[in-house]
Task: structure prediction
Amino acid sequence: MARLRLFAGLRQAAGTGEVELDGGSVGEILTEAAAVYGPDFERGLANAKVWVNGEPADDATPVMPGDEVALLPPVSGGTAPAVEAPATQLAVLPLLAWAALLAANLGSERWFAILVVGVAGAWAWDVFDQAASRGSGMTRWPTLLSIVGAVGAAWTWGSEGLGVALAGGILLTLSWGIFDKSMRTIESVGGALLVTVVSSTGVGALVLIRLGSSHAESRITSLLLMLLVANVVLWVRLGSDAQGFMDPHTSAALATLIAGVATGVIWDTSLIAMVIGAAAVASAFLAGRAFGSAVRTGDLYLIQRLPGVLVPLDSAALAAALYWVTLALVA
Result:
């Protein structure tokens, strides 16, 4: 029997998110499901997207016992977010995450490291939920374990420990397909590996910065404020009808640079280091936008709202990693 996974409206129509059905092809599986769940479910099949083991499929695609068939109506996400509103809208949960990290940064190093694990884990869970909704086959567990390992190793053994933890996370992700059949396609393994590397490096970098020089607290605060400013500016610009003299992403990058320089002056740290660090964060912010779109939707969408509740954190791990390397080289 094959496992049929249902999302959004089809999940509601069926009253379940997962069921096992007999059938030798996708068409036979869907016919059986329509007979079981009724006319409302059958109408929802008309525009649904189908994946088998993380690969796009059609009615003629053969299905073997144990295969996973994922079924998703486009209106709930699909490979392109069906949303008219602007992208990167700040919400309560991202703001709470920023506030919690800022507060923890003013406290003990241990609590900051613990909170980094929690925030990064919540973000990874959100990313993998969105990836699962399009049938990517990506599994969250290697990434979650790698995040914990990276923070623990960076805390205990420093940058060398982070390097070992990163190698372990890569090995774990690549080996996960031995136990999980859905992680045997290039999309599922490649996507999960990308998230593992970025998130593990980012959380380890945050811990190493916090355990670093006498300016550690101010540097973490500067990073968080730069990312917050970048997201706010991007949100405002994308929601505005005015064209302006520069595009929204350039505006966000420029605001990041200004915020970085301002915090460097306020906290009297190395101004040159903060300018270079701010440039690194601005670049990582833009790259992180593309990264978040790719892992959440399987495509590149920069002027649409991406699915998920922690989208504004998509750039954080990449920015933290590049920021740490920059400070290590020039500070």
Remarks:
- Residues 75-90 have pLDDT under 50 and may be disordered.
- The longest strand covers residues 2-6.
- Residues 92-330 form one domain.
- The chain has eleven helices and five strands.
